[in-house]
Specification:
Blueprint: E1 13-19, E2 24-28, H1 41-51, E3 57-64, H2 74-82, E4 84-93, E5 98-103, H3 104-107
Parallel strand pairs: 3-4
Antiparallel strand pairs: 1-2, 1-3, 4-5
The structure holds tetrahydrodeoxyuridine.
Length: 118
């Protein structure tokens, strides 16, 4: 989260994926002067995971400061879905404390995933 590039929103987000291999992949949000081109922390972490040779998310932690929980945006729920298992867990924290735990199924019920295309 401290490494985030977020000069436009000033909302820094960090993400860490625990993959099936046991390795942990991190990411942060990377904003852009052309606002829609910015990248969420979860997307950065997923890219790192794929580059590391992993394809399954056991758990993903998302950290951001604010009164409201820093839950993954809708697009990132779908990005996580692509590499999720039936038991993928999402941990929501601020810079100090774990504030909420949810399954991906809770955050994205009746989701559309790779199996829908087979
Ligand atoms: N952001 C994330 O990185 N992950 C989320 O799931 C929610 C939002 C970032 C995107 C943008 O850089 C900033 O937070 C404000 O929306």
């Amino acid at each position: 989260m401290k490494l985030a590039y977020a000069p436009y929103s000033n909302f820094q987000v960090g993400a860490a994926i625990l993959s099936e291999s046991g390795r942990i992949y991190c990411g942060c949000n990377v904003e852009n002067a052309a606002y829609p081109v910015g990248c969420c922390a979860e997307a950065s972490a997923i890219s790192a995971m794929i580059m590391g040779g992993d394809t399954r998310i056991v758990a993903i932690a998302v950290a951001g400061i604010g009164n409201a929980l820093c839950t993954p945006c809708g697009g990132c729920r779908q990005r996580i879905r692509e590499f999720a298992t039936d038991s993928t867990v999402i941990l929501i924290s601020d810079n100090q404390t774990l504030r909420h735990t949810a399954t991906l199924t809770e955050l994205l019920p009746l989701s559309f995933g790779p199996d829908n295309l087979s």
